[in-house]
Amino acid sequence: MAWEDRRGVYNFNPGPAALPEEVLRRAQEELPSYGGGGLSVLEMSHRSKAYDEIQARAELGLRRLLGIPDSHRVLFLQGGASLQFAMVPLNFIPEGGAAGYVVTGSWAEKAYQEADKVGCRAVVAASTKEEGYRRIPSWTEVQADAAWAYVHITTNNTIVGSQWQDLRHSLSIPLVADMSSDICSRPVRVEDFHLIYAGAQKNIGPAGVTVVIVREDWLAQAEEIAKARKLPTMLRYAVHAKNDSRYNTPPVFAVYLVALVAEWTLEQGGLTAMEARNREKAALVYGAIDESDGFYQGVIDPPSRSWMNATFRIADAEVKKRFLEEAKEQGFIGLNGHRSVGGIRVSMYNAVPVEACAKLRTFMDDFRRRYR
Predict the structure, then answer these.
(1) Three-point CA angle 147, 141, 170, nearest 5°
(2) Which domains does the chain have, with CATH numbers?
(3) What angle do CA 246, 248, 251 make, to 5 degrees?
(4) Long-range contacts for 112-120 (Cβ within 8 Å, ≥24 apart)?
(5) Of the listed 148, 164, 178, 307, which one is catalytic?
(6) pTM as predicted
(7) End-to-end Cα, the chain, rounded Å
(8) Annotated binding-site residue? 249
(9) Residue 107 appears among annotated catalytic residues
(10) How confident is the model over 179-211, as pLDDT tens digits?
(11) Is 154 annotated as a binding residue?
């Protein structure tokens, strides 16, 4: 498909998700020969000076965007957030210890369950499962034990469409966050977290690389626990840190795209500008829902709504089917709800332009008028 033919196609896929057009164009231009060196990023060695530069650019871009302090390391790993569900407890919960999990959606629940599967004691610190995950609990509802190794949260729940709006906390124990679907969508105080992990394929790159931001002083503790557990080498954070994320071959091209996306985000004005843009996009879509007089039925309580994933339902199954068909005909791609819950989901990650959400709003208003 030629570039001009992409116009009028709006990517609302939940992940892998939209990438900035400027990033795709630059990657296309540099693909045959990175930096004029005669090799594509796809074929260069991860031990080369060219890749040294790429990984350094990716890390620097993330540090500048998120304000990552020197107290934290940045790692580029593989296995997605799903592998982190096991690595975090295995590295940080000592034998006989426990950790708390705030269960706010399907992925938060999977993180909790995985800790138990690998033989670690996981405790529910708070949960809204009985309410259908319609809201995010307040920090006062999180029952944290001072003896726990950490408390784990999932900052954005892509399937149901909820998000932690307030990440300020007063926990006296380490906080771990899965930020896979809203990292770099707004400013965050990284120093308030002992560990952050995120699959790149929503806001910061393509599928294939997982960014881990972890406190340096926590790594030493993790290595002692890993040794006691006799963990396989590839499951040890300290090993990846010692080897600069290159104990094994890293996903070179994915890290390269993280560098490009980070630089693009900085050019847009950084995370303060990105937050304003994401609020604008969310307001357009939620406005169509809230002003529909019940035709579109929102899933999440308004104070807990996600800026990244807006979810709603249409009561009549045939009308919903027609909505998705007509939306696709109009160029709106990826609006089906997750297979586990159905409905409709609009994923509005950083690279989705305001224009796309404005056009979707117009379509939603017109569709409602025709099918009420």
Answers:
(1) 60
(2) 25-267 (3.40.640.10), 270-371 (3.90.1150.10)
(3) 75
(4) 112/152, 114/82, 114/85, 114/86, 114/89, 115/85, 115/86, 115/88, 115/89, 117/86, 118/86, 118/89, 118/90, 120/89, 120/90, 120/93
(5) 178
(6) 0.97
(7) 37
(8) yes
(9) yes
(10) 999 999 999 999 999 999 999 999 999 999 999
(11) no
